[in-house]
From TrEMBL:
Organism: Streptomyces fagopyri
Top-rank taxon, per record: Bacteria
Single GO MF descriptor: nitronate monooxygenase activity
Cofactors: FMN
Alphabetical list of Pfam families matching this protein: NMO (PF03060)
Name assigned to this protein: Propionate 3-nitronate monooxygenase
Catalytic activity: 3 propionate 3-nitronate + 3 O2 + H2O = 3 3-oxopropanoate + 2 nitrate + nitrite + H2O2 + 3 H(+)
Entry similarity comment: Belongs to the nitronate monooxygenase family. NMO class I subfamily.
Signal peptide (UniProt feature, chain positions): none
InterPro entries: Aldolase_TIM, NMO
């Protein structure tokens, strides 16, 4: 008996990770649930109104689902470093007719309070947090509304802090994960610890149910993290080429490109550590980008949007975990069912 699956209301211990920025669609969330798992509506980079619309769309599918929220953990940027970086990246921005000069750093909290208020008033089965740990009052409010609360952690100290805040579940994310690391100390790269070892370490330190994430791409990967003590596995990159994925065509093609050069942890695009496919942008700017989130995210956002429209894979943030070669063109439900096959 898997008590976490019972609490989540699902039958298969392979869940679809929230992927902000368009990759996670309502269709992907629904497909995950219909395969017996769970999908998460991403709240990141969306207004509270847009989140409400996404929640309504997921609810209309009549399936269980969760919502993932970016919790404030600001990483203020040094203004001089920000200006130097804008000047440096302008050489690439010129190719897409984007002017980065004169921008003022944007230091926002992604409408956190509004989103929490929405989810407290219109509760969903699961609310997960990434980047920061919400206060005990926020966790208690959501739990009182009937939501299970999950927290992304990348190490033992973070796991203990999340447990102290009163969360129900931990998503234990290894450095192999694609996209942003959930680390609470983004000036430090997340430790390169295999996900199975990380699960074992956290399990011995904290008595909460664990969901393993990071680099999982095969049934064997999933079986190993379950054997290490996880009660479920969460996958994202392996779903990016599925029929329900909202990832851009250029992103999907790059994931399957036999000439690809693997992945790299970089802050070049957003000022916060994130794993992406190596490309021209990461090569040129990875060693020069200052820390500063969300300031760098907003700085490079217009350039990245134009690069996606132009099909310029060399300039785009191609988020990908180390298991990206396992992504297939198939239904998302088929992917999740296949990954659970060894259990």
């Amino acid at each position: 008996m898997n008590s976490l699956l019972d609490a989540l209301g699902v039958t298969t211990p392979v869940l679809a990770a929230p992927m902000a920025g368009g990759a996670t669609t309502t269709a992907l969330v629904a497909a995950a649930a219909r395969a017996g798992g769970l999908g998460f509506v991403p709240a990141g980079y969306a207004s509270a109104r847009t989140l409400a619309e996404r929640v309504a769309a997921a609810r209309a599918e009549r399936v269980p689902f969760g919502v993932n929220v970016f919790a404030p953990n600001p990483l203020p940027v040094d203004r001089a470093a920000f200006d130097r970086y804008a000047t440096l990246v302008q050489a690439t921005a010129d190719r897409h007719h984007v002017d980065l000069s004169g921008q003022v750093p944007v230091e926002d909290d992604d409408a956190f309070a509004e989103k929490v208020g929405l989810l407290a008033e219109d509760p969903v089965p699961v609310v997960s947090f990434t980047f920061g740990i919400p206060g005990r009052a926020v966790v208690a409010r959501l739990r009182a509304a009937g939501s299970l609360v999950a927290q992304t952690v990348t190490g033992v100290a973070e796991a203990r802090a999340a447990a102290e805040a009163g969360v129900d579940v931990l998503v234990v994310q290894a450095a192999a994960a694609g996209g942003h690391s959930g680390t609470l100390t983004p000036r430090l790269s997340p430790p390169d610890v295999p996900v199975t070892d990380l699960i074992a370490m956290v399990r011995h330190a904290v008595g909460l149910p664990l969901i393993a994430a990071g680099g999982l791409g095969t049934p064997e990967d999933v079986a190993l993290v379950m054997a290490a003590g996880a009660q479920a596995a969460m996958v994202g990159t392996v779903l990016l080429r599925t029929e329900e994925s909202g990832a851009s065509a250029v992103h999907q093609a790059a994931l399957a490109d036999p000439a690809g050069r693997g992945t790299v942890l970089t802050r070049a695009f957003t000022g916060r550590p994130a794993r992406a496919l190596r490309n021209r942008f990461t090569d040129l700017y990875g060693d020069h980008a200052p820390y500063g989130y969300p300031a760098l995210h907003h700085l490079t956002g217009p350039l990245r949007k134009q690069a996606a429209a132009a099909g310029d894979a060399g300039t785009l943030h191609l988020w990908a975990g180390t298991g990206h070669r396992r992504a297939r063109r198939e239904g998302a439900g088929q992917t999740l069912t296949r990954l659970a096959a060894a259990l």
